[in-house]
Every structure is written in C-alpha cells, then in structure tokens.
Design a protein that fits this description.
Elements (H helix, E strand, L loop, with lengths): L27 E2 L2 H8 L11 E2 L4 E3 L1 H4 L6 E3 H7 L11 E6 L3 E10 L2 E11 L9 H16 L23 E6 L5 E7 L2 H12 L4 E8 L11 E2 L2 E2 L4 H9 L3 E5 L8 H15 L8 E4 L6 H8 L5 E3 L13 H14 L7 H7 L4 E3 H16 L3 E6 L4 E6 L4 E6 L8 H8 L1 H5 L8 H13 L8 H20 L14 E6 H4 L4 H11 L4 E8 L4 H7 L4 H12 E9 L1 E3 L6 E9 L5 E6 L3 E4 L6 E8 L2 E3 L9 E2 L2 E7 L4 E5 L11 H15 L2
Parallel strand pairs: 5-8, 8-16, 9-10, 9-13, 13-14, 14-15, 17-20, 20-21, 22-31
Antiparallel strand pairs: 1-7, 2-3, 3-4, 5-6, 6-7, 11-12, 17-18, 18-19, 21-22, 23-28, 24-25, 24-27, 26-31, 27-30, 29-30
Helix pairs in contact: 5-9, 6-7, 7-8, 11-18, 15-17, 18-19
C-alpha cells in the first residue's frame, strides 16, 4: 500500500462569512443586499492555493500530493446533475423535514457565486396537533419571505416557480426528510456468524430498527412442530413472539448459492406460521435474500399469506458478503411504507419533481462528494433528534450505520435505559449529580426542539452523546472493509452543533467515543443544512458545493491522535514545535495520558513538528504524508478550536473507580478547553 497523502489543510475560505447564526425568531437569515455589500469581488475557492484556469477549472494536484492533478470543473459538476449549464436553476428553495425541526433555505447567485440567501427553522408538524408536514414547511417559508423580502408563495400558498424577473419565487425545489418511524424488522437466518451477520450489515445501513434476530443454528431444533409436510403447523413460542412483535418486514437469509435448500424451506414454514398467526391487515412484508436455488419453493410456502420480495443472496459464497441488494430493497420499502405515508408529504413531493430524499441518503451524497473530489477518507456524522447516522467513505467504498432506536433527542430515554446512568456519569465531573443529569436527559427527550443554554445541560447531553456514538460504532465491529481509525476529514452536523456547544467540547466527545486515530481535520455544518444540500446537488451540484463551502462548513481545526508506547519512566511522549505563519514559536512537551490544546485560529497556518520520545506510530498503517521516522513535520491549518493533540493512548484508560474516573474526565475537559 502506497503512502496515504492526507491533506489536513483541506479547505480555506476567502469569502467573509455572513451572519448566519440562530436568533430567537429565526434559525438563520441574510438579506441579499447585505450579501452583495460584504462580498465585493471575492471568489469562492475550495483550496486556498489552487490554480485558476481560463476554462473555469481548478487544479488541486499540488495540494493533495497525488500522482495526477485532480481537476474540479464547474462543467463537470453540472454534468453530475444531468443538466446543461443553461438549464441549471439559479435560485433553489429547499426543505428539510426532520424529526424535531423543519428547516427551509434559499440559494441564489450573489456576485457570481451561489450563496445561502437565508434559512429559517420551525418545529416539525408531522405529529399532533397538525399531522401535516406542510404546515411546518409553510411556516418556515413565510418566515423566510419576511427575512429576505422575497415572495416565494402565491395567494393560494403554492410555490412560485420559476423565479420571476423581480426576484420572487424560485427556479427549483428539493426536499429531504427524516421525520418517520423506522421499519420494524425481524431477521431470520440459518447461521448467526454468516447469513445473519451479512443481513445485519444491510439492515443497519437503513432506517430500520431490528426488533429480533433468530439464528436457526442456535435454536436446537425447536422448529420441528412448525415444519411438517411443508405446511405451517401450530405456532411455537418463537412464532407467537414474532407475531406479537408485529414487524413491518421479515428478512430471510441463509445458505450459499447452490447449497442445501431443505433448511430454508423449514425456515419458510416458520415465517408462514408467523403470518398465519397475525391479522391479515398487519402481516409483514417478507424479503428473501438467501440461496437463490430456494427462491421458488420458499415463495410457494409464503406467497399465499404475505407479500414476498426476492433479492440477491447476502452470502453468495462463504468468502463473499453482498449486502447491497438487500439494503437497496429495504430502502425502497422504507420509502413506500414510511416516507410516502408522512402526513402532508404528498403535497411536498408535488413541489419536488425528483421526489423527497431521506436525510441519510442526501448526507451520504455530501460525504461521497468530498471523498471523491478531494481524495479524502471522510467520516461524516449526523446526530439528529430522531436518528444517528455515521458514514465512512474513501470514494471507492462506503459504510453507513443508522441508529433510530436511540438518538440525542426523542431516543434519549431509551439510550439511558440501555446503557445506564453510571456509564453516562463517567464522562462528567464530580459536580454533576446523577439525579439531576437523569432529569435533564429525560426532559430533553420530551422536548427535543428545546435548546439548552447552560454549560451544565450541554455537558450532560454531550456525555450521553458519547455513549450514543459508541453504540453506533458497535454496529460496524464485524465489518473489516472500512474502519474509523484512519480518516482525513471528520464532518459533523446535527443537534449538538446547533445547540451551541463549544467546538473543543464536541471534539473531545468525538475523541472519547470514536476510535479515530492519525491526523485529521474537523469541520462542522453550523447551519445543519448539509443533508438538504445533498438533495440540491441532484439538480445543481455547483450551487450545493459552493453553498456548503461558503456558508455552512466551519473548520474547527486539526487533531493529532498518535498510537503511543511510552518508555518506562519517561512521562513525556511528544515534543511539539509550532511556528505560526504570522510569526513566533511555541514549544510544548506532551505527557502520556494527556491532551494538549494549542490555539491556532481559523484561516491561520503553522509549521508543526511532533517528535516522539518513545515508539510513536501515526495512523493505522503508519502511512501519513509528513511522517518520517515517526516524526511528523508539515504545515497544518487551524480553526475555531485550534490544534488538539490527544496523547491518552487507545483504548482510552478508564479508572475502575467511578469517582476517580469522573475526576479524570474533569482533567480531560480542562486540558481540551471544553
């Protein structure tokens, strides 16, 4: 494997940021005339020192250190959106109907660049008392009209499209949503270590909640009474349990292609028994993703009772896992059974010719875009009120996990019940009382749209966030194809960022919960609009990319997480030298088990040298550009948090005594500036 050319200086902003932060009345707003006044003649660029070509292309080869230059072409972006440059909409209205909040934004051309004209946020109205997603969308658009001075709706409340000469209306509309219940899913397979594990990779990548899993190889033949003569017999204990769960979907997996069929037929009889035990109006849909030779006979036993769909085997051979077709089918079912049934979504979809995307799919598009265009390994995280999405992609491969059972909003109570207060309290200083923290978390679960303002409340929520992230990463433990250890860019969006926690506090939360190592940049979607811009990219990729860069993403800084093996008796493991471009020099000794935060503001650069006194390794394979003989030396970029060095070692050293661990958590907060 060749040297991995990490580029921590992954982006630089030349356009001054607009004042796009939440107020009491609105989530974000900026008038066009203010944008013109502030922009002047500045131009948006994705890298600060790329070379502008006459053709309108930017050459990033020198920045990334790749063998061949990477060309970022506006024309190519337009091709990605399947439109010619002349057909591209220049003003785009978009909506994000989330579990707790509905956000609406307007993109437009300002001084030749696509900018966020304004955005507003209102509570989602899918539930009581409105039961209509469009109510919240209309409320947000009305606020947006007042803030921008543009009329977007006509007298009947319909979208003005296309945009008029006077600036009213919009050329296009897109929408995303995560305001649904997950697919309640049961997975039944022949072997837990093989077929069930393969199916879980697909299920965990979609908006599905696994209610129960059954591996026949663990059931000791208890199915005998339900599989006589190919007919469903009297329900066993397991059949009764599955019928009581009333799942939306039963996923059947097992056997390699060309393998034995009989065990799958017995399993099909079990599933048929479940259907027979349920009311005909509540029977689940069955997806068969097992041995292709068994499809016909399995369909004969199930098809008369329940709708059945067939996809390619998740385990076509013992050495090959194929979760993609099952994942795609589950996503289709989710859209049909859950998304399309959101109250009022039919009216929203009528405005969006390309349909309403799920937030996870749209956010995945953003992560893949960054990875492919800039040859980065991107870790993207969306901590939503209703679901948590974790994406890791290197441009060629992609892994995604979606957890809906627990979240940082509606799912907080379930999270607390699952992990227990002791695990949450280990991240909090001694001044936090368990009963008060428990009450705060339950209150946030009841009122997920509430925005805490006290440091105490934000810190308690971030402690719960650590356990939530830990649970999400557990969904990937069985998949070696991509790991979290090596990332070049960590991209964050979601509720904790919108709530106003300090960047350093959220950086510490990530480092505590995720096994990310090496050297990487961290950027935050401060407006919470990255998923919505993923949908915008489908009709105008240029607009989505420029708005994401100019108005949404803020660099928090560069993080260093070496793998350390300290020498006995030597507490100092790293000697650090920092020479900012503005002048000066800083030398720091970093002790094993500590964190060191070095101020380096957004847009600032510095030459950094980290020299280990013991055995220091950077990254999973030690293949990071700028590292020679275990010494890192290169120019890096700062951010709103600065440079953070984590020398605590991995896995994190937890104290067995809870009180001592909480004292250690306080030390970590002080050291990280949290």
């Amino acid at each position: 494997m060749g040297e991995r050319h990490h580029n921590p200086d992954w982006r630089h902003r030349l356009i001054p940021r607009l004042s796009l932060y939440p107020t009491r009345q609105s989530f974000v707003a900026a008038r066009v005339r203010c944008a013109y006044a502030r922009l002047g003649n500045h131009r948006t660029r994705f890298y600060h020192d790329c070379v502008r070509r006459d053709s309108g292309e930017f050459d990033f080869g020198a920045r990334l250190g790749a063998g061949q230059p990477i060309v970022f072409s506006l024309a190519r972006l337009a091709a990605d959106s399947q439109m010619t440059m002349a057909e591209l909409p220049t003003s785009i209205l978009f909506a994000d109907v989330g579990a707790a909040a509905t956000k609406v934004g307007l993109l437009g051309l300002v001084a030749g660049q696509y900018r966020m004209i304004g955005a507003t946020r209102t509570p989602t109205t899918v539930g009581a008392p409105y039961h209509d997603a469009m109510v919240g969308v209309h409320q947000a658009i009305m606020q947006l009209q007042a803030l921008t001075g543009r009329r977007l709706l006509d007298g009947q409340g319909m979208l003005i499209k296309p945009a008029r000469a006077d600036g009213d209306g919009a050329d296009a509309f897109t929408a995303v949503t995560s305001a649904t219940m997950p697919l309640r899913t049961v997975v039944i397979g022949l072997s837990r270590d093989y077929s069930v594990t393969g199916a879980m990779r697909a299920v965990n990548s979609t908006y599905a909640q696994v209610e129960h899993t059954i591996a026949v190889d663990e059931e000791s033949g208890r199915w005998g009474t339900t599989a006589q003569d190919g007919r469903a017999g009297g329900p066993s204990d397991a059949v009764e349990k599955l019928a009581m769960l009333m799942p939306d979907v039963i996923v059947m997996v097992g056997g390699i292609d060309g393998g034995a069929v009989t065990p799958l037929l017995e399993m099909a009889s079990i599933v048929a028994a479940v259907g027979a035990a349920m009311d005909s109006t509540r029977r689940p849909l069955v997806v068969f993703a097992g041995n292709r030779d068994a499809r016909g006979q399995v369909a004969e036993r199930i098809g008369s009772l329940m709708e059945m769909r067939v996809v390619d085997n998740v385990l076509p051979a013992l050495d090959r896992v194929n979760p993609g077709p099952l994942q795609t089918e589950l996503e289709n079912i989710y859209r049909q059974q859950q998304v399309e049934k959101i109250p009022g979504l039919d009216k929203l979809a009528a405005w969006a010719p390309r349909g309403v995307m799920t937030s996870a799919d749209a956010f995945t598009r953003v992560a893949e875009y960054l990875a492919r265009k800039y040859q980065l390994r991107v870790l993207a995280l969306d901590l939503g009120a209703g679901a948590t999405t974790l994406i890791h992609t290197n441009g060629a491969q992609l892994k995604r996990a979606i957890l809906e059972e627990w979240s940082i909003g509606y799912g907080l109570e379930q999270l607390v019940d699952a992990v227990g207060m002791e695990k949450i309290m280990r991240w909090l200083p001694a001044s936090f009382e368990p009963s008060q923290v428990h009450a705060q978390l339950l209150n946030q679960a009841i009122h997920p749209t509430a925005t805490p303002t006290r440091w105490h409340d934000l810190t308690a929520l971030n402690a719960a966030g650590r356990e939530l992230l830990s649970k999400v990463t557990q969904l990937w433990q069985d998949d070696p194809t991509l790991t979290l250890m090596d990332s070049d860019l960590v991209l964050l969006t979601g509720a904790p960022i919108a709530r106003g926690s300090k960047p350093s506090a959220l950086l510490l939360m990530l480092l505590d919960a995720l096994d990310v190592r090496g050297i990487f940049s961290v950027a935050a979607d401060t407006m919470g609009l990255a998923p919505a811009l993923g949908a915008v990219a489908g009709i105008n990729a240029e607009a989505a990319a420029q708005a994401l860069e100019s108005d949404c993403l803020v660099t928090w800084g560069t993080v260093f997480v070496p793998e350390l093996a300290p020498r006995s008796g030597e507490p100092v493991v790293l000697n650090v030298q920092v020479q900012p471009a503005r002048g000066g020099r800083l030398e720091v000794e970093v002790k094993y088990g500590s964190l060191e935060l070095i101020p380096l503001g957004e847009g600032e650069k510095a030459q950094v040298e980290l020299r280990g006194t013991g055995n220091v390794r950077w990254g999973k394979n030690g293949t990071i550009a700028g590292v020679k003989n275990n010494v890192f030396k290169r120019e890096v970029q700062g951010g709103t948090a600065g440079l953070l060095i984590d020398a605590r070692g991995r896995p994190l050293p937890f104290m067995e005594n809870l009180e001592r661990q909480r004292d250690k958590a306080q030390e970590w907060m002080w050291e990280a500036g949290a």
